[in-house]
Design brief:
Oligomer: single chain
Helix content: 10-25%
Shape: globular
Length: about 70
């Protein structure tokens, strides 16, 4: 199992880093459940993960899982 750290910056961007603090991905919420993510290799992905009951943290964890699964 891969261990990563998920940080949210002041501007609402999330950063995903590995155990050696290398950046794996960054992503942010767009509108109506859409998220845009950029992987360290330059790949850009859009994902639809709705925020339920205002729980953005749970949605962000799901986006992280989907971005890192290839």
């Amino acid at each position: 199992m891969r261990v990563v750290t998920l940080w949210r910056t002041r501007d609402g961007t999330y950063a995903v880093r590995d155990d050696q603090m290398r950046l794996l991905a960054e992503f942010w919420a767009e509108k109506e459940g859409w998220w845009r993510g950029e992987l360290a290799d330059g790949t850009v992905r859009r994902l639809w993960v709705p925020v339920r009951d205002g729980d953005e943290e749970t949605a962000a964890r799901e986006v992280t899982k989907r971005l890192l699964s290839r």
